[in-house]
Write a structure and sequence with these properties.
With about 450 residues, the protein is mainly α. The chain has a single domain (about 5-450), classed as Amino acid/polyamine transporter I (Up-down Bundle), CATH 1.20.1740.10. It is built from 19 helices and 2 strands. It has helices at about 5-10, 15-25, 25-40, 45-70, 75-85, 85-120, 130-140, 145-165, 165-195, 200-205, 215-230, 235-240, 250-280, 290-300, 305-335, 340-360, 375-405, 405-415, 425-450, and strands spanning about 370, 375. Strands 1-2 form a two-stranded antiparallel ribbon. About 55% of the residues are buried. The structure holds 4-fluoro-L-phenylalanine. The site of 4-fluoro-L-phenylalanine has 16 residues, from helix 2, helix 3, helix 6, helix 11 and helix 15.
Length: about 450
């Protein structure tokens, strides 16, 4: 049974911010964002991305928090309780669980890679390799079966153990310890990168917008990336919202989390692009940017092995705090709705995710030729979740809270029962009802039309 919020929720506002920022900050910031920016022309992409985070990302995060905290429940229970049990809305919660499951299945593949790269960097196996050998190392590893599956499972088990420890002793504690470490390591990496000679070209690429490079498709990618990065649209923030204390300010909390997320993405760019340009590598190399291009960069810089270890460690930390939030969506549902024990829910979900996620891992090797619409299983999972399920989930959520739920109750939750002024409430409500749904319809349709 779900217990009351005093025993099940976060103990402080800082704890809530760090735990939720941990859920948001992840591979999306340090692996996905830089390669998308690299492929979409640099500075202009960054600018559009920042706009989307501020204008749509923050209000949608607030929306998820309102739904979670108002209902005090997991994503399925939240829609059930706030809609008065209407089946259609309960299904939206189930849809969130499904999306979390699919994201977790492919996300854990890349999370597992980080473990392998921490080990390789630590043991010096990447040091001194020629560029061709670095690329070879990556493809040999990812195209294999045993090791990528092993590291994926290891990552899943690690996440499962944290979740088993509970919201306060697991999620909140890990966020409080790991997030400051992540920032520290990231700043260290920035200093290293910026002190390389020839780094300024990378900074220009990142910060100097060239709008001629911006296409309709890259604007949409920026919007999709902002959803993925802020973990919006499938119930992660609904679940965490249900753990936020009634006296905390949802407005302020959302802004802090979104700014942390944005800062980490920008700092990751500051780590990666100056170094990539300083050593004449290709910024538009795609998903391999971090695993193939960066090891070459490390090999060329003084104390490269040390910085390689630091970088992959930081990637692993970012991934872990996000996988924790993904698993918690599923486990909170199993505990509160199905009345399972937390440890059982965590173990069963971990095994199920591995059973499906293994196909994503193997789609780089033995199952490489199993494709649909020219995409491998891994790519399909990524596409379906980031381009369809998350935006569709977010759209339905805005319709629910903006059109099917009383405005006074929304205001009541956001203003902590009327005790806060909430000057920006009307603006928020306009974004919730009109602007966010319109933007979402545009991305969903353009995703379908191609
Ligand atoms: N926001 C995470 C990242 O940027 O890596 C990915 C993610 C985590 C998406 C949790 C969705 C989610 F529920």
């Amino acid at each position: 049974m779900a217990s009351d919020n005093t025993s099940r929720g976060f103990t402080s506002n800082v704890g809530a911010i760090l735990a939720a920022a941990g859920g948001a900050v992840g591979l999306g910031n340090i692996w996905r964002f830089p390669y998308m920016l690299g492929q979409n022309g640099g500075g202009a992409f960054l600018l559009v991305y920042i706009l989307f985070v501020l204008l749509i990302g923050i209000p949608l995060m607030m929306t998820e928090f309102i739904i979670g905290r108002r209902s005090q429940r997991n994503v399925v229970g939240a829609y059930r309780s706030l809609s008065g049990g209407r089946k259609g809305w309960v299904l939206l919660g189930v849809f969130g669980i499904l999306a979390a499951f699919l994201i977790y299945a492919f996300y854990s593949v890349v999370a597992g890679w980080t473990l392998n790269y921490i080990v390789m960097a630590f043991s010096g196996k990447l040091a001194g390799l020629e560029p061709a050998a670095v690329a070879d190392t990556f493809s040999t590893f990812t195209q294999g079966s045993f090791w990528p599956l092993f590291y994926q499972l290891l990552f899943l088990v690690l996440t499962g153990l944290v979740i088993t420890m509970g919201v306060q002793k697991g999620i909140e504690k890990v966020g409080k310890i790991l997030m400051p470490i992540l920032f520290l390591l990231l700043i260290l990496m920035c200093v290293r990168s910026l002190t390389l000679s020839g780094s300024s070209e990378g900074m220009r690429f990142l910060f100097k917008p060239d709008f001629s490079k911006l296409t309709g498709q890259s604007v949409l990618s920026a919007l999709g990336q902002s959803f993925f990065s802020l973990s919006i649209g499938m119930g992660a923030m609904v679940t965490y919202g249900s753990y936020i204390r009634k006296e905390d300010r949802l407005f302020k909390t959302s802004i802090w989390i979104a700014l942390c997320d944005l800062l980490v993405a920008i700092l990751a760019g500051v780590v990666i692009f100056p170094a990539v340009f300083a050593f004449g590598m290709n910024p538009a190399s795609g998903p391999e940017l971090v695993y193939v291009v960066l090891p070459n960069v490390f090999n060329n810089m003084p104390a490269g092995t040390l910085f390689a270890v630091i970088f992959f460690l930081l990637l692993g930390i970012a991934a872990l705090t996000s996988t924790i939030s993904l698993l918690e969506i599923i486990v909170a549902f199993a505990v509160e709705e199905l009345h399972w024990k937390r440890s059982t829910a965590s173990a069963v979900s971990t095994l199920l995710v591995f059973a499906v996620g293994a196909f994503c891992t193997l789609s780089f090797g033995p199952l490489k030729n199993v494709t649909l619409l020219n995409r491998t299983i891994f790519d399909l999972f990524d596409l379906i979740t980031a381009s369809y399920l998350m935006p569709i989930g977010a759209l339905l959520m805005t319709i629910f809270l903006g059109w099917c739920f009383p405005k006074v109750e929304v205001k009541d939750e956001l203003s902590n029962g009327g005790t806060l002024k909430c000057k920006a409430f009307e603006l928020y409500y306009i974004i919730l009802r009109y602007i966010a749904p319109a933007a979402l319809v545009v991305i969903i349709i353009s995703g379908i039309v191609g």
